[in-house]
Amino acid sequence: RAKADGRGTYRFFETGMDARAQARRLLEMDLRAALQRDEFQAYYQPIRDVASDRVVAFEALLRWNHPHRGLISPINFIPLAEETGLIIQLGELVLRQACSDAATWPNDIGVAVNLSPVQFKNPNLIASVTEALEKSGLAARRLELEITESVLLQNSEATLTTLHELRAMGVRISLDDFGTGYSSLSYLRSFPFDKIKIDRSFVSELATREDSVAIIRAVTGLGRSLGIVTTAEGVESDAQLELLRREGCTQAQGYLFSQPRPASDVAMMLERPRLRASA
Ligand code: C2E
Ligand code: MG
Ligand code: MG
Ligand code: MG
Asked: Where is the EAL domain (predicted)?
């Protein structure tokens, strides 16, 4: 189609592709160097039990502390890390860091780590989880691994075997971003998840859309019947929290309590119920 638009457009199009490819190559080189320079850091966001209002866990969220560009969000580098396979190294780094940080927290506080679908294609996944637990001394039951539906979409036999092995080690498995994919209910039948994380999009529309309330009600009800913990993501207001409490949602996570913060702020996040100001 670019060709049919005339020669000038075609060349412009090619140049555009080139610039993108080059930007991608630069970012890839930067990512590799950043791994060498140790510029990645896990930040932590508290997850609270709605009924007791206590912090029960923290989710590890990766940040790239770039010397010139400042803190870079994972949405800006995880996709390329996945394409290039660098996510394997990054994933192991987060796992090790999260487990050794969590080992210093009170015994009843868990840690949740996000796993990329690419990590499930790596035959070393079980070994790296085992190693992270052993080296840190963290009890397996305190570790939660968050996966999205897309993990179950690929090579599902091998993936299910891996999930069952992790489960057998005592690690808990959460289904992240629930409701954003295609056939969420069948996934709940294919693997006995410990937790469903209701995607932020449903929570943010709670005050303005009746159907979001109905969806939250349905998912928390489903969780109750199946014996699965439900966690609402992206809770930003007291009104949202009140509604979640009324609907019997088990846990809540969001800026209402705190943004993700460095490990050095965990003690403060445990002491102070709300840290709304930005990190
Ligand atoms: P996620 O696992 O669904 O994480 C929740 C995201 O929502 C985080 O974004 C968090 O900072 C943000 N969030 C939490 N509360 C609120 C709120 O009240 N309002 C709003 N607007 N946002 C809130 P973040 O840290 O930018 O991470 C984005 C995504 O990147 C994560 O989504 C996860 O899919 C991925 N990610 C982060 N760390 C890792 C990692 O270590 N490994 C892998 N594979 N993926 C990661
Ligand atoms: Mg997550
Ligand atoms: Mg999520
Ligand atoms: Mg998400």
From this structure: 24-274
Please list the helix, strand and coil fractions of the chain in percent, rounded to the nearest 5, in that order: 50, 20, 30
What pLDDT digit, counting tens, does each position of 93-150 carry? 999 999 999 999 999 999 999 999 999 999 999 999 999 999 999 999 999 999 998 8
Buried b (16+ CB within 10 A) or exposed e, 141-154: ebbbbbbbbebbee
Q: Is the pTM of this model over 0.95?
A: no
Would you state the structure tokens that stand for residue 245, as one six-digit string? 């409490």
Ligand 2 geometric centre to CA of 148 (Å): 8
| Residue 179 beta carbon below 6 angstroms from any ligand 1 atom | no
Instruction: Name every residue whose Cβ is closer than 8 Å to that of residue 192 and which is 6 or more positions away in sequence.
Output: 167
> Ligand 1 within 6 A of 236 CB?
yes
Parallel, antiparallel, or unpaired for β 195-198 and 172-178? parallel
Question: How far is residue 225's CA from residue 227's CA, in Å, rounded to a whole number?
Answer: 6
Residue 145 forms beta bridges with which residues? 113, 173
